[in-house]
């Protein structure tokens, strides 16, 4: 290094100086180098990778984890075709200038919400060919400059509406070959303007829930490559039918009120009569209950022997005093 040369020139003895002085100067030079090395960022390359001109190539190395000692000055990191299963929190904390990160064809099932912290300059992220079924809503907050995101060939069942709201500069998004059945209207409200959006080979269910996707495709037909390949999987009569060809009229029943006028008439007629009938039934049950109680009470009344005439007179006189 240039700074090492400067220190070497300063420490080398002048001609004619003693060997003892030269040895002391050489020792001082070594100590200075040892003390100053920690002040300079490491540009080393992991032993399992190859590094050249800012690119770190760790492809197909049977890695189960992202290497710890990736160079901080890397602008491209390729980790394709490995066996990485999880992207842990702060995995790329030192890679502040990284612009491209590729993890294609690994075994990733989970991306922790702070896995991409530190990648403020990242522009391209490839997570395709993995086993992701969901992503935390905060996953892309650390990468606001992202322009290309590839999530194709995963197992995504749904996408949180807030997931892409943190990517205002996104231009290319790939969601092909996942397990998506529909996308909510809130998802498209948070979706930035795209130049390319791949959606084919998903099991789209063409019921009322597919209308937000249909409407977006209709308004952005030039954004989706081979838009006719975005097809329904269910229901069976619409299998392999292009979503964009469904037509607005097919969604008319989705906006009908839950109760039709004849339904209201039915409730107005049946409701009051049912109410009156229930009151009558309650009165009848109450009457029968009272009658039963009286009958039971009367059956247990004590009847003594008939009083004599004199006794009846005394009682009569006592009551009328």
UniProtKB/TrEMBL annotation:
Subcellular compartments: Cell membrane
Ranges of residues in domain LRRCT: 202-255
Residue ranges constituting the LRRNT domain according to the UniProt record: 44-76
Domain of life: Eukaryota
KW Membrane (keyword) present: yes
Membrane topology reported for the UniProt record: Single-pass membrane protein
Gene Ontology CC annotation, any one: plasma membrane
Protein name: Leucine-rich repeat-containing protein 26
Pfam families xref list: LRR_8
GO aspect biological process, one term: potassium ion transmembrane transport
Keyword terms of this UniProt record: Cell membrane, Disulfide bond, Ion channel, Ion transport, Leucine-rich repeat, Membrane, Repeat, Signal, Transmembrane, Transmembrane helix, Transport
Transmembrane segments: 264-293
The encoding gene: LRRC26
């Amino acid at each position: 290094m240039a700074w090492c040369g400067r220190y070497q020139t300063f420490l080398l003895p002048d001609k004619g100086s003693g060997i003892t002085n030269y040895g002391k100067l050489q020792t001082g030079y070594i100590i200075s180098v040892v003390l100053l090395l920690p002040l300079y960022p490491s540009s080393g390359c992991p032993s399992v990778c190859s590094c050249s001109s800012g690119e770190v190539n760790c492809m197909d190395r049977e890695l189960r984890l992202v290497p710890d000692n990736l160079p901080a000055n890397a602008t491209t990191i390729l980790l394709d075709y490995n066996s990485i299963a999880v992207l842990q929190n702060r995995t790329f904390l030192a890679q502040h200038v990284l612009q491209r990160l590729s993890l294609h064809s690994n075994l990733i099932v989970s991306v922790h919400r702070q896995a991409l912290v530190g990648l403020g300059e990242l522009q391209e992220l490839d997570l395709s060919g993995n086993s992701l079924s969901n992503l935390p809503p905060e996953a892309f907050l650390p990468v606001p400059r992202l322009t290309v995101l590839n999530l194709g060939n995963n197992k995504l069942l749904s996408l949180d509406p807030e997931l892409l709201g943190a990517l205002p500069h996104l231009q290319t998004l790939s969601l092909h070959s996942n397990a998506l059945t529909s996308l909510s209207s809130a998802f498209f409200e948070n979706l930035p303007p795209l130049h390319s959006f791949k959606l084919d080979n998903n099991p789209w269910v063409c019921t009322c829930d597919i209308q937000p996707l249909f409407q977006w495709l209709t308004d952005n037909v030039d954004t989706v490559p081979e838009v006719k390949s975005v097809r329904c999987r269910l229901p069976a009569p619409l299998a392999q039918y292009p979503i964009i060809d469904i037509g607005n009229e097919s969604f008319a029943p989705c906006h009908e009120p839950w109760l039709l006028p004849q339904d209201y008439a039915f409730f107005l007629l049946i409701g009051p009569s049912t109410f009156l009938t229930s009151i009558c039934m309650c009165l009848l049950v109450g009457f029968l209950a009272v009658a039963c109680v009286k009958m039971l009470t009367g059956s247990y009344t004590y009847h003594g022997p008939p009083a004599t005439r004199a006794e009846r007179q005394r009682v009569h006189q006592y009551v009328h005093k």
